[in-house]
Every structure is written in structure tokens, then in C-alpha cells.
Write a structure and sequence with these properties.
Length: 183
């Protein structure tokens, strides 16, 4: 494994928020780690997420462009703040249910808690998100309904375009199936 990241996170090129499921990139050596990190920094890595949010989003697709930084009222949280770093999230509605919307999300930037902060800010918090959804968890899921579904990048040695997909976890599929049955 790459020594970058130290003993706690050897080889981890980027991370997922706590309670977010899915795919991430791990480098086998330092050269690969540096190459992949540069691709992320240069916005060459395409990250696609799936999420279930509370509420019905009316638009079929939209872009959220709001700066994110440390919350001014709670240092453990991130928030949309005037002098924050640029943060851009694109989403597309995959399906609407009675009280929820299932989304496909692409990140243009990669700020801490970006998807969670942006969706909560526009009034559609992620189901099961204990931090940004006022603790509401109508399905009793352990973890939030945010899944890192697909990552696309160039292989650090061969330069071949790569696509890695992680299937939805069972609890996520179960909630979606229950919602489909009620529709």
C-alpha cells in the first residue's frame, strides 16, 4: 500500500463521509497515489452518488452552486457560508415517491459533507443523516441513504479509462423496494 496517508489510512486517496456507503480509491504505491490525487485535484475524476432525500424535488435536474466552509455556529459541522470554498453539486431525479426523491448526483468539487450540506440547505436532507437532517430517520436505517455508486478515472500506470461501480447496500435497496411497492 501507498505510505501516503500514514498508518491510519494507508493508500486511501480520498475518503467517504462516515455512514456513506460505496466505492473509493485506494492506491497500491506512492506513485499511483500522487497521480490519483492530482486527478482529483484537477477535477478529472468523476464521482457519481445515489441518494434518497426527504421531500419531493420538483426539478428533474439542477445544479447547486453554494460555497461551503466550517459552520459559524457549530465547529463540528460544515455549512453554506459566504466566504466558503466553491462547491458545485449536480443532481438528476431518478424517481419520485410519496414523500421522498431518489437522486443521481455528480460532484464538480469535493468539499467535506458537500452533498449533505447542499441538499439540506435547499430543503431536501438525506434520509438517515443524523447531522444535517434534524435527526429524522423515518425508515430506521443505520447510516445515511447516500451511496458512492461510481468513480471514473484514468489508471495511474496504463492511463486507461477506468470505471468502478459499487452496488447499493441491502438496506438501501430494501427501502427503495418498499417505496416502490407503496407507489
Amino acid at each position: 500500500m501507498s505510505g501516503i496517508g500514514g498508518e491510519i489510512r494507508p493508500g486511501i486517496v480520498h475518503r467517504l463521509d462516515k455512514d456513506t456507503s460505496g466505492v473509493l480509491i485506494v492506491a497500491k504505491n506512492d506513485k499511483a497515489h500522487l497521480n490519483l490525487s492530482k486527478q482529483i485535484k484537477d477535477r478529472k475524476v468523476k464521482k457519481t452518488y445515489l441518494a434518497l432525500v426527504r421531500g419531493i424535488i420538483k426539478e428533474n435536474e439542477a445544479t447547486i452552486n453554494m460555497p461551503i466552509g466550517r459552520s459559524l455556529t457549530d465547529r463540528k459541522k460544515m455549512a453554506v457560508v459566504k466566504n466558503g470554498k466553491e462547491a458545485i453539486t449536480h443532481f438528476k431525479v431518478l424517481e419520485r415517491f410519496e414523500n421522498n426523491t431518489y437522486l443521481k448526483i455528480n460532484l464538480e468539487t469535493g468539499r467535506t459533507h458537500q452533498i449533505r450540506v447542499h441538499l439540506s440547505k435547499i430543503g431536501y436532507p438525506i434520509v438517515g443523516d443524523e447531522v444535517y437532517s434534524n435527526g429524522k430517520n423515518e425508515f430506521g436505517v443505520k447510516g445515511q441513504m447516500l451511496h458512492s455508486w461510481k468513480i471514473e478515472f484514468k489508471h495511474p500506470t496504463t492511463n486507461k479509462q477506468m470505471e468502478v461501480i459499487a452496488p447499493l447496500p441491502k438496506y438501501f435497496e430494501d427501502v427503495l423496494n418498499n417505496l416502490k411497492c407503496k407507489s
